[in-house]
Amino acid sequence: MHKAKKKFGQNFLVDQNIIADIVSSIRPAANDNMVEIGPGLGALTRPLLKVLNHLHVVEIDRDIIARLENDYPQDKANTKLIIHAGDALKFDFATLAKPLRIVGNLPYNISSPLLFHFTEYTERITDMHFMLQNEVVERMVASHSTKAYGRLSVMLQYRFFMEKLLDVPPESFRPAPKVDSAIVRMIPLPAEQILVRNETLFAAIVATAFGQRRKTLRNTLRSYLQESEFTTLGIDSQLRAENLSVADFVRVANYCDERPPSSVA
Ligand code: SAM
């Protein structure tokens, strides 16, 4: 018996119907280069291994690693399950063969930093399928001018096509989490569709605008745009960050990036 550890966000999937739905939405194929984050007690790992020739897993919990090593000895004869013991936040995904598929029922306490960590490897990744807190999935896929739309929506939508696939109720896990969950698919956009020229500046503008989301853009983006520049861009400075589409944020950032240094406010 394994006692679930809260500090590692351990809520293990037990509903076999949900597990089958998740695996069929991932659509694994024998030759995929796939990595699972947090295999835990193997709820997704086992059905994935039925199809895949090999699977990498990244797991932080020493007790779980010991169980996995017992079930899948890490000797030369084993090429089926390759265990990487450690923190997925520090794992270098460039060490795995590409094109890479990433899957996982993620520990909810570190889901946002994990998502940002994966964005560093976008050009190596075919797709990603994650179980996350439903509220986070809603924020990821939110359209502008809705309550759920925010920094996470913009910072992921400019790089990924994303869709919510499945709702997963708390009863599907042991122990049951206090929140609803959902499965999201993330597919990196082709390089030619990523129009941001200066990602650091883009990230800074998005963070500044949403830092005080109730304030008008005129106030929040004061250090980036003068009133006349809002007019040039065709953006109403009385709007708030949540009213700007991802494409609007891209236009603002590219405008600030291209403008001659002398005109910076
Ligand atoms: N995949 C299993 C399932 O669906 O039942 C377990 C999912 S559980 C929500 C999250 C898993 O991620 C646990 O096995 C936990 O130990 C592992 N984990 C937590 N933090 C991690 C980290 N920073 N790096 C790698 N694995 C982590």
Task: Describe the fold and architecture.
- The chain is an alpha/beta fold.
- It has two domains: 6-192, Vaccinia Virus protein VP39 (Rossmann fold, 3-Layer(aba) Sandwich), CATH 3.40.50.150; 199-258, Orthogonal Bundle (Helicase, Ruva Protein, domain 3).
- 34% of the residues lie in helices and 19% in strands.
- The chain has ten helices and nine strands.
- Strand 2 (33-37), helix 2 and strand 3 (55-59) form a beta-alpha-beta unit.
- The model has no long low-confidence stretch (mean pLDDT 96).
- Bound molecules: S-adenosylmethionine.
- S-adenosylmethionine binds next to strand 1 and strand 3.
Keyword list:
alpha/beta; 265 residues; Helicase, Ruva Protein, domain 3; 2 domains
SSE arrangement:
Elements: E1 12-13, H1 16-26, E2 33-37, H2 45-51, E3 55-59, H3 62-71, E4 81-85, E5 100-105, H4 111-119, E6 125-133, H5 134-141, H6 151-157, E7 160-168, E8 173-174, E9 181-188, H7 199-211, H8 217-220, H9 227-233, H10 246-258
Parallel strand pairs: 2-3, 2-5, 3-4, 5-6
Antiparallel strand pairs: 1-8, 6-9, 7-9
Helix pairs in contact: 7-10
The structure holds S-adenosylmethionine (SAM).
S-adenosylmethionine binds at residues 8-13, 37-41, 43-44, 58-61, 64, 87-89, 105, 107, 110.
The secondary structure category is alpha/beta
Strand order of the largest sheet: 4-3-2-5-6-9-7
What's the helix count? 10
Please identify the top-level CATH class of the largest domain: Alpha Beta
Unreliable spans are none
Average pLDDT: 96
CATH architecture of the largest domain: 3-Layer(aba) Sandwich
Percent of residues in β-strands? 15-25%
